[in-house]
Design brief:
The protein has 217 residues and is mainly α. It has a domain of 140 residues: Orthogonal Bundle (Tetracycline Repressor, domain 2). Helices cover 73% and strands 0% of the residues. The chain has 10 helices and no strands. Helix 1 crosses helix 4, helix 4 packs across helix 5 and helix 7 crosses helix 8. The protein is elongated.
Length: 217
C-alpha cells in the first residue's frame, strides 16, 4: 500500500524561492544601510537565516546579488505601490496614491536602497548603477506624463516644467522616507502633504481646518 503524500510540504522550487526572497530582502536592508561597497555577503546570509554557501548557491557574486535586489525592489514596489495607484482615474490621485503607498512600502526597512545605490554609482560605469538609473529614468518619465495629463485635465495646476516637477517629487519623497520610514501613521500623512506641496495641490482638509482655527484665535 502506498503511504499518503503530504501535499502541504513545500516543493524544492518553493523552498528555493523562499530562500531567494529572504536573501534578497536581507540584502536590500544591507544595501540600504551600508551601500554596495561595504555590503558583507556573510552578514546578508546570516541575517536571512542561511549560510553563505546557500547565498552563493543562488547568486554568483555581489554584483549579481545587487542586480537581483534592484529587480526585486522594482517588482515588489510596482506590484504593491504603482499598480494599485494606476487603477485610479485622475493623474493627481495617482501621484498622491504613489506617495502614500511608497511610505507604507518603506516600512519594510528598504527605504534607502535605490537612492543609496544611485548616489554611490553616480558618474560611474557599472551594471548596478545603470540598472538604477534606468529605473529612475522610467519612473520620472511616468511621473512627468501624469503631471502633463493632470495639468491638461485641470487636476494639477500649472507650474514648473513637468520633468523638473517630477524630479522634485521623486527627490522629496525619497528624502522624506529616508528620515521617516516606519514612523506610522505620520509617514503616510506627511508623504501626501509633501506630494501636494510639490504638485501645487490644495492642502489636506485637516490642514485647512487647522489653519482656520489658528487664524480665528
Amino acid at each position: 500500500m502506498t503511504p499518503p503524500t503530504d501535499d502541504t510540504r513545500p516543493t524544492q522550487a518553493e523552498r528555493r524561492a523562499r530562500t531567494r526572497d529572504a536573501l534578497l530582502e536581507a540584502a536590500a536592508r544591507g544595501l540600504s544601510e551600508y551601500g554596495y561597497g561595504s555590503l558583507s555577503l556573510a552578514k546578508v546570509a546570516a541575517e536571512a537565516g542561511y549560510t553563505r554557501g546557500a547565498l552563493y548557491h543562488q547568486f554568483a557574486n555581489k554584483e549579481e546579488l545587487a542586480l537581483a535586489v534592484v529587480a526585486w525592489v522594482d517588482q515588489t514596489w510596482t506590484a504593491e505601490v504603482e499598480e494599485p495607484a494606476k487603477r485610479l482615474s485622475a493623474p493627481a490621485e495617482i501621484l498622491l496614491a504613489i506617495a502614500r503607498g511608497h511610505a507604507i512600502y518603506c516600512r519594510r526597512n528598504v527605504a534607502r536602497v535605490m537612492m543609496t545605490l544611485r548616489i554611490e554609482f553616480a558618474g560611474r560605469e557599472h551594471p548596478v548603477g545603470r540598472a538604477i538609473m534606468d529605473l529612475a529614468g522610467e519612473f520620472l518619465d511616468n511621473c512627468a506624463q501624469w503631471i502633463v495629463e493632470g495639468r491638461a485635465d485641470g487636476s494639477i495646476p500649472p507650474g514648473p516644467p513637468p520633468q523638473a516637477t517630477a524630479t522634485a517629487y521623486l527627490g522629496a519623497l525619497e528624502g522624506l522616507m529616508v528620515l521617516l520610514a516606519g514612523q506610522e501613521p505620520h509617514d503616510v500623512e506627511l508623504a501626501e502633504r509633501m506630494a501636494r506641496g510639490v504638485l501645487g495641490l490644495p492642502p489636506l482638509a485637516s490642514d485647512t481646518a487647522g489653519l482656520g482655527r489658528h487664524q480665528a484665535s
